[in-house]
Write a structure and sequence with these properties.
With about 260 residues, this protein is of the alpha+beta class. The protein is built from 6 helices and 18 strands. The chain has an 18-stranded mixed sheet that branches. Strand 6 and strand 7 form a beta hairpin.
């Protein structure tokens, strides 16, 4: 049997934010088994964490396979460590394929991620991006993910992507649509990764490794409040720290149980 938790991340309320599956283990299961568990869970990410020294190793799996970096499942993993595995703990260090990651408990029930910055570079327009989103962006950028910049938050909210076309974009891990905010948020976004089994991710912490430096430079501010305007939606409190970015959000436990393997 394996303990299994589901945590809604980047939200204060159940059934919003981004649900992540968390599996604490003493040692890594076979990779095929981790892939099968993630596919069976059918969440955008399932994280496996194991003790390592005073911290934890962490790996993330989408329904299609292992992923390089995931914000919401890291926040959810820290929530499980600080509230269930080691109650009262105030910080957790994770070792990952993207390097060291730290999560700290902050005031107001927030959990802050310390992640690497991945600023994008501008690239030439791509017809398939426009066709897949049904609207021409004003600019296109690339880091790990493609970033399509739009003029208004409403344009991003109203996108109705053609995922069959999106799957044809070469070397596209994820496609971010983003625009300035139109109220209490500095910017908004949506995230699509159909080739990784994620049609639309509800709230994507790792995408903000690119969005935070991008918008920090455009707006001339280091501290930013972001909203991912998916159907479930989520709020991220961000700070540009140069080579590192800081993303804070809330989390709430949805379920706790066991996998019978």
């Amino acid at each position: 049997m394996m303990k299994y938790y589901v945590v809604d991340a980047f939200t204060k309320e159940l059934f919003s934010g981004n649900p992540a599956g968390i599996c604490p283990v003493e040692d890594w299961p076979a990779e095929r088994l981790m892939c099968d568990i993630a596919a069976e869970n059918n969440l955008s990410e399932t994280a496996f964490i194991r003790p390592h020294g005073s911290g934890y190793d962490i790996r993330w799996f989408t329904p299609a396979g292992e992923f390089d970096l995931c914000g919401h499942a890291t926040l959810a993993s820290a929530f499980i460590v600080m509230n269930i595995l080691e109650p009262g703990r105030q910080a957790v260090d994770f070792s990952s394929m993207s390097g060291p990651l730290r999560v700290t408990r902050e005031e107001g029930g927030l959990y802050q991620l310390d992640f690497p910055a991945r600023p994008p570079r501008e690239i030439e327009p791509m017809a398939l991006v426009e066709q897949s989103l049904g609207l021409r962006p004003r600019g296109l950028y690339l880091a790990r993910d493609h970033v399509a910049l739009f003029d208004t938050a409403e344009q991003v909210r109203s996108l109705t992507p053609d995922f069959n076309v999106m799957r044809r974009i070469k070397n596209c891990i994820g496609l971010i649509a983003t625009a300035p905010g139109d109220g209490e948020y500095d910017f908004v976004s949506r995230y699509f990764a159909p080739n990784d089994g994620i049609v639309e991710d509800p709230v994507t912490g790792s995408a903000h490794c690119t969005l935070v430096p991008f918008w920090s430079r455009r707006l001339g501010r280091r501290e930013l409040t972001a909203r991912q305007v998916s159907k479930r939606g989520g709020t991220l409190y961000c700070r540009d720290g140069g080579e590192r970015i800081f993303i804070a959000g809330h989390a709430v436990l949805y379920s706790a149980g066991e996998l019978k393997l």
